[in-house]
Amino acid sequence: MGLYEILVKAGAEKDITRLPYDVVPRILKKIEALSETPIPHGARKVSGTESLYRIRAGDYRIIYEVSHERRQITIVYVRHRHSAYRRL
């Protein structure tokens, strides 16, 4: 399986800049790993949506969309678990 291109929405970039300093490397590592395995073990489909998935990174959630046709992953949000599903 080839690599997927990772796109990060502006809102997700902003979310990452607001994270605690010690959490950022773990989040970035999880995002980079998605290029090889777009739906890793433990990923769950976000209920109430057609194409969004979530993965856990400690107390934080990475919400993303996968396009197998274009071989792209779009990071939509990176938020604390308490606020990750608002506005979906």
Automatic annotation (TrEMBL):
The keyword Transferase does not apply. The keyword Glycosyltransferase does not apply. Keywords: Toxin-antitoxin system. This is Type II toxin-antitoxin system RelE/ParE family toxin. It comes from Methanofollis formosanus. The lineage of its organism: Archaea, Methanobacteriati, Methanobacteriota, Stenosarchaea group, Methanomicrobia.
